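Lab channel / #folding
Pinned by the channel admin:
"Please post every new chain as: sequence first, then the structure tokens as a reply. Keep commentary short and put observations after the output so the thread stays searchable."

First post following the new format, from NK:
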Amino acid sequence: MDAAASPLPGLRDELSLHPGPALWDGSPTWTIRDPVRNRYFRIGWAAFEALSRWEGTAGEVAAAVRAETTIDMSDAEVMEVARFLSGNQLTQASSHADTVRLTAQATAENHSVFNRLLHHYLFFRIPLLRPDRFLGKVLPLVAWLGSPWFRWASLGALLLGLTLVARQWELFAATLVETFSISGMVSYGLALSLVKIIHELAHGLTAKRFGCRVPTMGVAFLVMWPVLYTDVNETWTLASRRQRLLVGAAGIMAELSVAAWATLLWAFLPDGSLRQGAFILAAFTWVSSLAINLLPFMRFDGYFLVMDALELPNLHPRAFAMARWWLRESLFALGEPPPEPMKPGRQRAMVAFAFAVWIYRLMLFLGIAALVYHFFIKIVGILLFAVEIGWFVLLPIWSEVKAWVKRRERIFCGTRWMRPLFGLSLVLWVAIFPWRTRIEAPATVAAEIVAPLFLPAAARLEAVLVKRGQPVHAGMPLLLFTAPDILARQATIAAKLAGKRAEVEAVKLDLFGRERLSALTEELARLDSEKAGLDAEAERLTVTAPHSGLFLDPLPDLQVGAWLSPRQQLALIRADGATIATAYVAEDDLERIHEGDAVRFIPYSLDQASMVGTIHTMDRNPVKVLTDPALATLYGGEIPVRVSGQNLVPQGGFFRIIIHLEGLPPPIKLVGHVQISGQAQSLVGRVLRSALVVLVREWGA
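Reply from TO:
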């Protein structure tokens, strides 16, 4: 029996039809509302005319449309409308075939327990409130917040506040730094709660103002990250694009109003808790509104605003479908029609948007997994990472590969498939072939024996006996210092010694004073010992060379008469020995290098030449404290560190290796990196090894 001659399925009684916005070509649209499932479906002019005559068979409906309108509608197009209605469960189930169809749909949607858990982990909602009646009562009380005069007043507050902040920018930036603390994070959390409540209420109140029902408000979890939500899906029944844009932008507009007034209050309030609260509210709200909500890559306000502004419902799935079609055509030139008719410029924009969404989501979800890994349970972070890579990368790739397999006969009909095959082969060869032999690591270079010169105590420079770069021998005087305190104490001891010696000589001549001779002799010995100690201390103020070498890197302030501290390094004595490089190799690369491997040191300074050498020794335990601050990220280096007291603790496993370089030692310590010719390794092998190292290290953490 011809399908076009079969009776059309009846529509469900609870459905309602609402006028929709006009498309860019001026054609009208309508919206079908399914109140049971809270779903909305946009249909065009032809589908509306068919539904207006939805009785009898497809042939009869098509004939009625052709006779009563200017639309030349075929039987097949009516059947396409019927399939659309049945596929979205908008028709009545009046036969066994309908029951079988609904059962098949339910079975297809009934995923396994693992898939349900995975989907709920990625996204799920918890409705908390039914706010419709509450919003209806509150709306008259707060309607003035949406009035034109309040919007203009908020704009004025914004401009004035930004002007005042610009005049106090240093104080504003300093306050921002001060809030990076535990108490500051708690304050930002409270500000987040307050601002997001205002945000969602703004959506609900604006929707209520335009006559829409707001059934629920609650919390949605996006990869375990909580975000508030308000169900304003009924705004799809609004025919006015302006009204839908106002509902979609209400949250951002409310946040920006809060930020504007909070910024202005911060500029006028005196120092105290109120001003601190205004600052936190303003700073967080600016970031939340401009950097998060406005982006259309996630299903936040920016996404819905773009859809309403461009009249592109279901923007993400449509863009993804267009990007998959573009990819197949670029690779295989199948000649398939695009998923929907669209101008070339908009097609390219949709494809670019789809790839931007994929990249953004991948980075976002991996960032969330990294946060969980570093600040919560590490094994949970690893599992989240694996799930997100599987769900957002591997699963879409596998789905696309299956689509290619279905089209394999058409793909292999031509020769276009050879190009992507060659490119894929090249990528696999680069990834699998162990061509990567060079290992790079940050390093410093200095002489094997370098002695820094320091004073034993604060003193005044009297003479500089050597010049920079001058050869010296062990024990040679280099710098002469004096300390007035020591000179004064030496003069006092000398006077006391002279008096005691005279007294001893007098006692020796007195027959009745010889019993005092023993006590005077002990006092004289004590003064001699004290004088010897002062003389030794004075001699230490003459800085001598600890060994033979070159006098290098003198302090720039070595001027006669200058007072210097014992904490200041005066100069260096570099011995004429070997040239040593100290490098720090990451844990992943340690097994690829061995003692005796060739090394090239490349300094960061452009006026220094590179040096070659070999690995001499390797530590088998990671360094606990970094003794070369120049290599830390805090000072522009490459090794990530955290500050623990007075020490720099590396973040991650770094192993110290000692390298003997050829040539004379440099006059100063050089900073750069070394290139080690180690064991070859492929990119895939490196990734797998890094993953295994993390799993072994963190399993059970």
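NK: The first helix runs from residue 45 to 52.
TO: also worth noting, Residues 114-311 form one domain.
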